[in-house]
Amino acid sequence: MSTAKKQIHLAAHFPGVNSTTIWSDPASGSQIDFSSFEHFAATAERGKLDFLFLAEGLRLREHKGEIHDLDVVGRPDTLTVLAAVAAITEHLGVVGTINTTFNEPFELARQLASLELVSGGRSGWNIVTSNDAFTGENFRRGGFLGNPDRYTRAAEFVDVATALWQGAGVEHHGEFFDVVGPLSVPVSPQGKPVILQAGVSDEGRDLAARYADAIFSPFADLAKGREFYADIQERLARFGRAPDSLKILPGASFVLGDTEREATERYDYERRAQVSAATAIRTVEAVWGRDLSEYDPDGPLPSIDLVVDEDITAGRAKTHRDSRGTAQQWLDRAEAEGLTLREAVITQQSRGVLVGTPEQVADRIDEFVQTEASDGFILVPSITPSGLDEFVDKVIPLLQERGSFRTDYEGATLRENLFAH
Description:
It is a single chain. By secondary structure, this protein is an alpha/beta fold. It has two domains: about 10-260 and about 350-420, Alpha-Beta Barrel (TIM Barrel), CATH 3.20.20.30; about 275-350, no CATH class. The protein is built from 15 helices and 14 strands. It has helices spanning about 35-45, 80-85, 105-120, 135, 145-165, 200-210, 220-240, 260-275, 275-290, 325-335, 340-350, 360-370, 390-395, 395-400, 415-420; strands at about 10-15, 50-55, 60-65, 65, 95-100, 125-130, 170-175, 180, 195, 215, 245-255, 315, 355, 375-380. It has an eight-stranded parallel barrel with strand order 1-2-5-6-9-10-11-14, surrounded by six helices. A three-stranded antiparallel beta sheet has the order 4-3-12, with no helix packed on it. The radius of gyration is 22 Å and the shape is globular. The relative contact order is 0.17. It comes from Conyzicola lurida. One of its GO terms (molecular function) is monooxygenase activity.
């Protein structure tokens, strides 16, 4: 007797706030014009994807005291863009990252409840926390919260928002918030927005297992994905939740080719295009903590003796805590593999990428889902706004033919579509 295949869930991350975007490619379009969001959303809905995802930066990143011009500068507000996208789509979910550290639960609950209404129950909220005092300077509370406090604040934040979304009066007096409801917005078609969470620390995993409907995970490696999947299942049981009550969706970019060789060659081009000479130097400067503009990006990495462990990049989470230790690891790998400065950065910044023919990429996605390494993927194209087109045209039909991906939307709300299978 055959067993029905586990269904794949796919979403799309509008690129830009990451190191994946290839700004220099002739096909690259605007990160700001609404026509880009419109094209991207139309493609995602044509492919029957679950939702469109937007990241958010609350302050422009700075490097050596100046605006970091290799990143998005001036992207419109997330909730405003999502409301506009909801107006031009019928089934596609609209999900945005909104910070719990620098917002207030009553105001955000009202904004998300409004997005729920105008979208017909297709909204989602990606919960993130921040310990970035540079960002906090622009908010009333400002300052800095360490890990335990920011996750405690996040949990209380979600508890308050959830109570408000239920439509009853709220009389909350907690460690971080004093809130008296109710909201002035009716209960939405799906009850409350779908909740996503993206942190993978121990505290982040517990927060997800307690509250989230989906996790935006970084584990696009099969073995690590299975380990993470199993860990989350154990945590779900600890919080009294069913195994199928949370979807795990790693972020992954993709590179397609008519042959495996063509895909590999295209991948090599994209990796170099993503890390320009200027990007390479600034990335190394952030680790070494000093100006290195006189160094050749196609030459060797600077000596470990030059590391001063200063924060010269602000507005973005540090990817390392031990600057000298990180620099030494980079130097050791560069020496062992004969890498230049730029090649070392390319190697260090490599993330989960699905590379191959459409058939090979479809095989890989199906393997992840059928062997419980994930429930699908959040796709991160390298080109805006047309980078998703090829995937929808070439890979989605193959997944549909295999019976692992929907041929049409099952429900009217994002939650119904996310949990249809």
